[in-house]
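Interim report, section 4.2 (structural modelling).
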Amino acid sequence: TGFVTYDPGFVNTAACTSAITYIDGDAGILRYRGYPIEQLAEKSSFIEVSYLLMYGELPTAAQLTEFSDRLRVHTLLHEDMRRFFEGFPRDAHPMSVLSASVSALGTFYQDSLDPFDHDQVEISTVRLLAKLPTIASYAYKKSIGQPLLYPDNSLGYVENYLRMTFGVPATAYEIDPVMAKALDLLLVLHADHEQNCSTSAVRLVGSAHASLFASVSSGVNALSGPLHGGANEAVLEMLEKIRLDGGDVAAFVRKVKAREDGIKLMGFGHRVYKNYDPRAAIVKGMAQEVLGRMAKPDPLLDIAMQLEEIALADDFFVSRKLYPNVDFYTGLIYKAMGFPPKMFTVLFALGRLPGWIAQWREMIGDSATKIGRPRQVYTGAPVRDFIPLDQR
Ligand code: CMC
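Predicted structure of the assembly:
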């Protein structure tokens, strides 16, 4: 019955109603639960923002303490799960390790997979948020051949993650507060972005009443793509390539415009922001600050700034409303913090996790939700008769 709308990429199709994140792409506005991203970036913290996204309101001091304490006691991985990391190949992409591990949480917590049991959803929410940093750091430690560190629950969320990532056993690890603050802020900026590709994947899988772990694992996989979260890694590869080719930024921009080898300016353009990406503005300021503290300046920052300047003055990019997005400068900051490019998208996933959970919970609690099941416009052969094998 009725007609089917053909809308590739769902550019004009709202698949749900949502009260979580508001974006005005033309005005460059982003708000979580009504709060402007600029205010949250300046005054809030990742745990507070996670609470806000998932429960709808900023926590009181008591609620924040209780929530942080709950997270703290769930940071350990099951010992059997810890051994998984011995089995992954050393050069595995950490995003694959991450999605496989999130999926595997469903095998350890079979008592909490029911999407309609409030207590089960609560404990899964806490377990996911508490354990993802542990999983992420183990994926990294595996790749460099260092021993895995148990979480130190006297530390804050980000501090604990940094220690598990960069610390080694029997050696004190000094947390750089500027680095911890910068990472916390980057997680805040990534925490939700309404119906982006990975969040839509989480909702779609969840709409079939798959568990929170199964749904979030799909989100991690979607995020790994270079057109989505994988862009931060791709930006750094692009900057490095420009540097190795002699640093001729204008020549690279000409190649992009000529669509040579189909190359795109990674970290540029956005489906929704057609004016500027408010997250990118905050990240750019931070890149200059964090990179400015380094003993040796990173030549890639200079290339990035030149690239931005040339592109923003070029009609090809201006007429297509292509501006730097959140991923353009984040990679440089992560690099300055000591993360290898392969870990950049994992950091995006750590940040996006509360958004995925909030959107999944909203979807499950929404009486209008139906199983996601798009239609198609069939373009194949008309009906025809089967031809036996010996006559083909
Ligand atoms: N470099 C060169 N040309 C571009 C770029 C780019 N980065 N992005 C879009 N275009 C061109 C595109 O070729 C098209 O040109 P024409 O009209 O002549 O065919 C026009 O601009 C419109 O682009 P579109 O592909 O229709 O836009 P979209 O909304 O489908 O894609 C996008 C959005 C983000 C996938 C795309 O801009 C892109 O591939 N950017 C590079 C990857 C990237 O940085 N992704 C991160 C996105 S932000 C964070 C996140 O979601 O993870």
